[in-house]
Specification:
This is Ammonium transporter. Belongs to the ammonia transporter channel (TC 1.A.11.2) family. It is found in: Cell membrane; Membrane. With about 475 residues, the chain is mostly helical. It folds into 2 domains: about 375 residues, Ammonium transporter fold; about 30 residues, no CATH class. Helices cover about 65% and strands about 0% of the residues. The chain contains 18 helices and no strands. Helix 1 runs parallel beside helix 4 and helix 12 packs antiparallel against helix 14.
């Protein structure tokens, strides 16, 4: 028999040999795997369905496929390099030391902070990284060259997302300052909204007809995708604690309170000013509520979560429905789904409100390090200096993530366009999915086939010759 005496932890010198995973909390591990699956379902199939349904019919396949491709590609590069850049040993104030997250000895080892293995943490954080890239794609639907997107995903993940994750969560300089970001308002939403808007500037707009006439092709399916996004957020914010403890429960309740309030406020503004109860508007209000509460979900009391919902349902509504139409620069940049407003604006609001409303007791439960302080609202009893410092740190975090994403996204786009156009050619833009992928979302046999691109069948010896020709032949 194999000698297992070396598996004894300190203090176990007598009796039967314990499990080598004596440190494991099965409850924590089970919850974290469930939370990871919920976050993953927000992307696949949640955002795939949402994107494929909210766009014009001719872009349904391309939009859904951009999300699917990003999800798969992020996982590949995440385990090979980016996870350790984001959460590895310190290599400087911006990044961890490069290394792979695939060796068994690393994956089965206890995570530094939580009572589950690194493998669980790697997958949980992958799901966060994947949805960030997919949210970014919402700004680029309906015109980005898919081959450029194939380059963009790993480059942006490596050069931009990793820096945001490490600086805020991995022990980088923003973490040392004490920036509060409970589950990703800055790391995920400000970065995706700003990077999406920046990339949209460099890619260029959709064709004029699509910008003026871009109706959803299936509103019921859109609501199904939105529902998966909303319910999946229980894992998004509830999993940030790494344990199914009372703070996680509060974070989940706050998430849904803020979201419901935000949806109601957005819908109210739509009805007051446009006299229509817009379904798309309700979904936008839902998203801004989810995003706004994320950096503060486990740090605020329920009344504060509802206040945040009121703000997230009104301020982004104003920036999207009023300012966007009045400012020429916003009009110039074609942000297809308004990700700048629903993610960058709402995420920044949530981060700043965390600096105002974070409750002292909850903040101490989540952050034990002394550099983290509660919100300014609770600092008028002799800790005003700490309250102002926390708000200053929240502003610093928002500014850094914004500037970094503008610069890095710009550089990535400029590099990619040296090798491949960022935007599809005009003919493909006019036709849509059939020109780009040779497939259509809602085509019966022989219906809507505008091109002859059947590459996937080109080697078949039994299909008619006309099915094997190249496009335009």
């Amino acid at each position: 028999m194999m000698n297992v005496s070396d598996n004894h932890p300190p203090g176990f010198d007598q009796g039967p040999s314990p499990s080598p995973f004596y440190w494991l909390s099965s409850a924590d591990n089970d919850w974290q795997l469930i939370a990871s699956a919920l976050v993953g379902l927000q992307s696949v199939p949640g955002l795939i369905i949402l994107y494929g349904s909210i766009v014009k019919k001719k872009w349904a396949v391309n939009s859904a496929f951009m999300a699917l491709y990003a999800f798969a590609t992020v996982l590949f590069f995440w385990v090979l390099l980016v996870h350790r850049l984001s959460f590895g040993d310190h290599f400087g104030p911006l990044l961890g030391r490069p290394a792979m997250a695939v060796p068994e000895e690393y994956l089965l080892k206890q995570q530094e902070v939580f009572l589950f293995p690194n493998a669980t943490y790697v997958f949980f954080q992958f799901a966060f990284a994947a949805i960030t890239v997919i949210l970014l794609a919402g700004s680029l639907l309906g015109r980005m060259n898919f081959y450029a997107w194939m380059w963009f995903v790993p480059l942006w993940l490596t050069a931009s997302y990793s820096v945001g994750a490490f600086t805020v969560w991995g022990g980088g300089f923003l973490a040392k300052r004490g920036v509060l970001d409970f589950a990703g308002g800055y790391v995920i939403h400000v970065s995706s909204g700003v990077a999406g808007f920046t990339a949209a500037y460099w890619v260029g707009p959709r064709i004029s007809h699509d910008r003026q006439d871009f109706p959803p092709n299936n509103i019921i399916n859109m609501l199904f995708g939105a529902g998966l996004l909303w319910m999946g957020w229980s894992g998004f914010n509830g999993g940030a604690q790494g344990s199914p403890n009372p703070v996680a429960s509060l974070a989940i309740l706050n998430t849904h309170l803020c979201t419901a309030t935000s949806l109601f406020i957005w819908l109210t503004f739509d009805m007051l000013f446009y006299h229509k109860s817009s379904v798309i508007g309700a979904v936008q209000g839902m998203i801004t509520g989810l995003v706004c509460i994320t950096p503060a979900a486990g740090l605020v009391q329920p009344w504060a979560a509802m206040l945040m919902g009121l703000i997230s349902g009104s301020v982004p509504w104003y920036t999207m429905m009023v300012l966007h139409r009045r400012i020429a620069f916003f009009q110039k940049v074609d942000d297809t789904l308004g990700a700048f407003h629903t993610h960058a604006v709402a995420g920044a609001l949530g981060g700043l409100l965390a600096g105002l409303l974070a409750h002292p007791r909850l903040t101490k439960l989540v952050y034990v390090e002394e550099q983290y302080h509660h919100g300014l609202f609770y600092s008028f009893d002799g800790e005003l200096g700490n309250g102002f410092k926390q708000l200053e740190d929240q502003i610093l975090g928002a500014v850094f993530i914004t500037v970094w994403n503008i610069v890095i996204t710009t550089l990535i786009c400029l590099v990619i366009r040296i090798f491949v156009p960022l935007r599809m050619d005009e003919e493909d833009l006019r036709i849509g999915d059939d020109a780009v992928h040779g497939e259509e979302a809602y085509a019966l046999w022989g219906d809507g086939q505008k091109t002859r691109t059947y590459v996937r069948w080109s080697m078949s010896p039994v299909l008619p010759a006309f099915c094997r020709g190249s496009r335009g032949s």
